[in-house]
């Protein structure tokens, strides 16, 4: 069990919800915090139901098709608190997929590598802008703290990347001057 189960159980701690409500809330409000997709949410809800952490009942309103309504059980509430405590206390090892490319950066011409890193910088700027436009949540501090944490890390990554690009530009320019003192490359 992990953070996705924590998310679903936490949402059910607030109130019973049907699957569409859960998925809509995740997509509208939590897409900046999780990348969980609808099929994954339904599969996890089914598994949580089979293990006794979530109760499922069918509800029908008017002529609408029946829909499943999920609610947390007392065992689910205990599991939620255990997962919450574990998640809050644990500092996981951070790895970044983009670091793999940095390790092999020297295999590309310097200008191409710089162009690619500038594209990455633009992507970070877009992510920062997206997160800065996130609506404020009025129910408690938790969601706001999670978004603030992500935004802080994005800014740190952006600042580091801008400095790395400048450093690569400086080393490329110094190498150009050393190879031909009369010629200086502008990257």
Major beta sheet, strand line-up:
1-3-2
Write down the secondary-structure element order. HEHHEEHHHH
In helices, the fraction of residues equals 55-70%
Overall number of strands: 3
Structural class: mainly alpha
Q: Which outline best applies?
A: elongated
Main pleated sheet:
3 strands, antiparallel
Strand content: 5-15%
Helix tally equals 7
**What is the radius of gyration computed over CA atoms, rounded to a whole number of angstroms?**
24 Å
- Count of domain modules: 2
Instruction: Give average pLDDT, whole number.
Output: 86
Q: Poorly predicted ranges (pLDDT <50, ≥5 residues)?
A: 179-187
Assigned CATH superfamily of the largest domain? Winged helix-like DNA-binding domain superfamily/Winged helix DNA-binding domain
| CATH architecture name of the largest domain | Orthogonal Bundle
Essential attributes:
mainly alpha; Arc Repressor Mutant, subunit A; 3-stranded antiparallel sheet
Summarize the structure in words.
This protein has 187 residues and is mainly α. The protein has two domains: 3-89, Arc Repressor Mutant, subunit A; 98-179. It is built from seven helices and three strands. The chain has helices spanning 3-14, 19-30, 38-50, 74-89, 98-103, 110-132, 142-179, and strands at residues 17-18, 54-59, 67-72. A three-stranded antiparallel beta sheet has the order 1-3-2. Strand 2 (54-59) and strand 3 form a beta hairpin. Helix 1 crosses helix 4 (74-89). It starts with a helix and ends in an 8-residue tail after the last helix.
